[in-house]
Design brief:
Number of strands: 16
CATH architecture of the largest domain: 3-Layer(aba) Sandwich
Family: In the C-terminal section; belongs to the class-I pyridoxal-phosphate-dependent aminotransferase family.
Mean pLDDT: 91
Number of domains: 3
Shape: globular
Number of helices: 17
Pfam family, one: GntR
CATH superfamily of the largest domain: Type I PLP-dependent aspartate aminotransferase-like (Major domain)
CATH topology of the largest domain: Aspartate Aminotransferase, domain 2
Largest sheet: 8 strands, mixed
Strand order of the largest sheet: 4-11-10-9-8-5-6-7
Keywords: Aminotransferase, DNA-binding, Pyridoxal phosphate, Transcription, Transcription regulation, Transferase
Helix content: 40-55%
GO molecular function: DNA binding; DNA-binding transcription factor activity; pyridoxal phosphate binding; transaminase activity
Protein name: GntR family transcriptional regulator
Bound molecules: pyridoxal-5'-phosphate
Strand content: 5-15%
Structural class: alpha/beta
Radius of gyration: 30 Å
Distance between the termini: 68 Å
Amino acid sequence: MNTINFHNGARSFRQLSAYLEARIRRGDWQAHEKLPSVRQLAQESGLHRLTILKAYQQLKECGLVYVRHKSGYYAAPPAVSARLDHVPAPVVFQGNMAALHQLPARYQFSQALIDPNLLPNHYFAEYMKEVFDLYPKLLGTYAQVQGDPELRELLAGYFRRSAQLHLDADELLITSGAQQAIHLIADIWIRPGDPVLVESPTYANAIDVFRQKGARLLSIGIQDGCYDLQEIEQMMQRYRPRLFYLNPTFHNPTGICIPVEQRKQLVDLAAQYECLLIEDDTCSDIYFDGKPPAPVFAYDTEGYTIHIRSFSKYISPGLRIACIAARQPWMSQLLAAKSLADGGSPLLNQKLFLHYFRSDRLHRHLDKLRIALRIRMEIMQQELDEAGWQYEQPQGGLSLWVRVPDHLSVPLLLRECLARQISLLPGSLFDIRERYEQHIRLSFSFASETQIREGMHELMIISRDINVQQRFE
Ligand SMILES: Cc1ncc(COP(=O)(O)O)c(C=O)c1O
């Protein structure tokens, strides 16, 4: 019989009840198994019978035991909530960047999103009608897992003409945003403990995805807009990483663009050390000093590069259209992962995007957008220049990577700014070791020109107040 060991020295009914509870939860008695009688417990413990009864009463109230008339106390089957305790806890990773984006902001400098007033929203209502006239049964069917063939054909042609990417439609997979592409790639190729190279700084949400997969992250520095290729080679040689996630064109957060020569050398290293290059490209159409060089993918003759291209930011974030370009055997593996993830991106979104993308409105839109963004960037830079703050001059993209003066504490600045609904991102989010403590990322693409002026004024006042406060402390 299951006996009680009273060496724990229970003296009160509460202690006894806690002791019995722990043993019931541990499974010392199965559901519906009889518990020791009151008399037996009293004898073994030397406690009064009333104390034992009170302890059982308390366990009964908690639903851990029940009484059978004239028979005694029995272990109750676990309640639903208790049974759920045995279901493994969800592995939900709360990304830091996502949490900051959810805060309300009067001056939105944290999200690298484009002001909806600058996007071609009004055309989509028109296309909606057209698309349903052309494909009346559109919503009555699934999309192909790989994506709409018409859209993939169009994109393959576009990549051939505009970016020197020689691709077939079969080498493209449509995804729901670049974020999903990163996720699929991590799902396929990262197992816990796998070494993965990332840039420093790098896109914060990619860090979060790789961490969630248990990757062992190793960082590659960027100096004066270039990689240290020797460092990359040493890392590849020493750690044999499965993949190197890079954002070489209008890099988030710095806006730099890796030169052609380095792109060519990188693909040689990747082939030599059999390391996949995951080239993330979300902003190559947002340039300020002329078109960027061809993507790394274009220089790769061995097939070690997987190219992610998103159109989400500057056409329609709501449609979530992006694609992955990959050679075999990678494409088959990606297709299997995409099929498990969602069975294919929504067909309506793909058709709407297709109709806009093949019109010449796209090119006019991009020309105007680049001008509007450049103006906003220059306004923000003007405010920073007046305050004497330094920043990296971006060649493209949507944000400024700013170094705040040494005396200014970024956590303090962030706290005060958020309290006044000015949102920004601390530099430490963009690094696996939370370096860049003196950096912040300020996006100039969402706030209007007036909002940028006002918000930056307020931000500078806040920083001066912090400075004064710090001097008196
Ligand atoms: C480098 C980088 N990759 C991926 C993404 C996610 O893009 P999408 O909106 O297409 O999911 C972003 C968005 O900020 C980004 O900056």
